[in-house]
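Duplicate of #3305? Posting structure anyway:
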């Protein structure tokens, strides 16, 4: 998995699929060097254990979906894009996008300047975009762009060459951002979901780099998903321990590799083409081949699965959703 099923035992954070952050993408807008695209995917349409469809409503109204951006390299957010959703009623839902800066961005809450209000959530092929404050927003159900042979990896790298996610959906938050807002040079990006069902905002999930939460956190997964990137040094021993077992690393080498994976922030320079892991992440980047090589200490370098063919050339870039008939794929 990338960041799918990031709750305990391949479940969902707080037991709610709508709070499960699955993937983060950051790339320059095709054909426009002045703007960038940030995509936060959540809510996998299918569970692994037990297998079956998840909830019909796309986003949780008692949740906050957030993109955090660090502009000065201290692993603390200087900009936060926050999306709240209305209740899902009569098959419809809308979103409000806010932007916070400075100490407000680094904090926890749904404050910030309103950029877009009443953006409709798309559930079908046609994806309406909403605009405001120099930004453009799409929210809705889409084809999951992540590609991976889940069964093969969970079965000791005996690859089936079947893409578990080939007929699955996610819920996408696609944001087009003016580069002028991000400043000049490289920034760091991560995503998180917060659960407000109990009356207070509690971080349910977070991440940026694909796969490592699911495969490297072990019993520390709940603590890890609740932590902030600025405190990620505490998880270097946890990651190192997992790498020793998965890849046969010596202890010192495992610690060195683990330190390169933290803090869990995606580096992104809008002036350069996207290419994971050096700069952002494009929808076609084979991030799992990269991670498998790390996980296995170079023993496994591919799962033989490639990008999906339903990606769009224009906004919102993520393909239209599959019919709600995903197969029960062995995983």
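Output from current build:
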């Amino acid at each position: 998995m990338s960041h799918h099923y990031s709750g305990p035992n391949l479940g969902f954070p707080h037991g709610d699929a709508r709070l499960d952050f699955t993937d983060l993408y950051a790339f320059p807008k095709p054909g426009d060097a002045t703007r960038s695209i940030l995509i936060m995917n959540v809510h996998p349409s299918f569970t692994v254990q037990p297998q079956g469809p998840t909830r019909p409503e796309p986003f949780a109204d008692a949740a906050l979906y957030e993109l955090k951006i660090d502009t000065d390299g201290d692993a603390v957010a200087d900009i936060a894009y926050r999306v709240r959703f209305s209740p899902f009623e009569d098959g419809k839902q809308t979103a409000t996008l806010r932007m916070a800066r400075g100490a407000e961005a680094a904090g926890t809450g749904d404050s910030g300047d309103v950029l877009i209000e009443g953006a409709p959530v798309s559930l079908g092929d046609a994806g309406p975009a909403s605009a405001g404050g120099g930004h453009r927003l799409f929210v809705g159900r889409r084809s999951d762009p992540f590609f991976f042979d889940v069964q093969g990896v969970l079965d000791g790298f005996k690859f089936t060459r079947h893409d578990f996610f080939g007929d699955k959906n996610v819920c996408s938050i696609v944001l087009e951002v003016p580069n002028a807002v991000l400043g000049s040079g490289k920034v760091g990006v991560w995503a998180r979901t917060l659960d407000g069902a109990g009356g207070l905002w509690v971080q349910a999930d977070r991440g940026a780099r694909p796969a490592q939460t699911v495969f490297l956190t072990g019993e520390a997964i709940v603590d890890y998903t609740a932590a902030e990137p600025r405190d990620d040094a505490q998880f270097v021993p946890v990651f190192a321990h997992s790498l020793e077992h998965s890849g046969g690393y010596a202890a010192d080498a495992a610690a060195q590799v683990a330190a390169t994976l933290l803090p869990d922030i995606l580096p992104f320079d809008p002036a350069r083409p996207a290419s994971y892991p050096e700069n952002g992440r494009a929808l076609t980047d084979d991030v799992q081949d990269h991670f498998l090589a790390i996980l296995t200490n170079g023993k496994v370098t591919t799962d033989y699965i490639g990008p999906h063919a339903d990606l769009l050339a224009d906004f919102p870039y993520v393909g239209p959703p599959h019919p709600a008939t995903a197969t029960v794929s062995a995983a």
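Confirmed duplicate; merging threads. Residues 236-247 form the longest helix (12 residues). The CA atoms of residues 240 and 255 lie 5 Å apart.
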